[in-house]
Amino acid sequence: MDNNSINCSNIRELPEPSFLSCLKKEGHVLIYDAKVQCFSIEGNIDDKILQEWALHIRRHYVRDDELTDYVHVYEIDAKKHLREDCIPDIPQIRSGDFAEIIISDLIQFIEGYEVPRYKQHGREDKNKSEHGTDVIAYKVTNGSEANNNDELLAVEVKSRSSSPNLKGAIADAARDSLKDRSRIAMTLAYYANRALAAHDTRTSTELKRFLHASEHPFKETFAIGAVVGIKDAEHSLRDKSASDLSINHGQRVFIIHRTRLMDLIHSIYNRCVS
Question: Stretch 9-17: mean pLDDT, rounded?
């Protein structure tokens, strides 16, 4: 990860995080009639990677320029501001946010989509998640004009960081994914407004293409993500089919897992405020 500032206007220049090297793809994890991408978070993660991971996470809640300005204007300690006002400390919120962020990272840096980063940003209550689609991502064929092959991907994410219940996480995400059709427009409008206010012209320009679906049709696809505290994903899903887990035929499923995952999440989030 480079040392350039990531500010409100250039959040889309968020560098590829080094912790992605800890993700090991498991091609042997299968669900019949579903398209599965499964990754385990491997091994012991050194302090340097954890510190970079924490910086990456922190920037989702408050950008570098926002933190600098707040500390300067209000003459408050940065650690105190982050701890009291910005970074969640309720385990359930940490777990859910972590899951949405790491699935966003997978979809952007491994799958090659563009992913706006506004779901966690600028909350009035650090321990209250925003409503709407968990992860919005897209691929645009030509940035200067709409194309029917442009794709909008909506991902419903479930986290079970303190539980090995992978099947339950997938099934819950699959059922809730059905709600995303009604939430996408709201989420797009929310992100577009946030991007405009932040002078994030890259995101606001790209989202404009998807705000006029009736005039400029595009491909709309749905996927589910499960982030779970389990060691052996293959064993948990052995002989399972899409219908067993309420997954639509051919739907993509993104899985990230690690034993004692919640311990890792706390280790990262505690570094966000230190």
Answer: 96
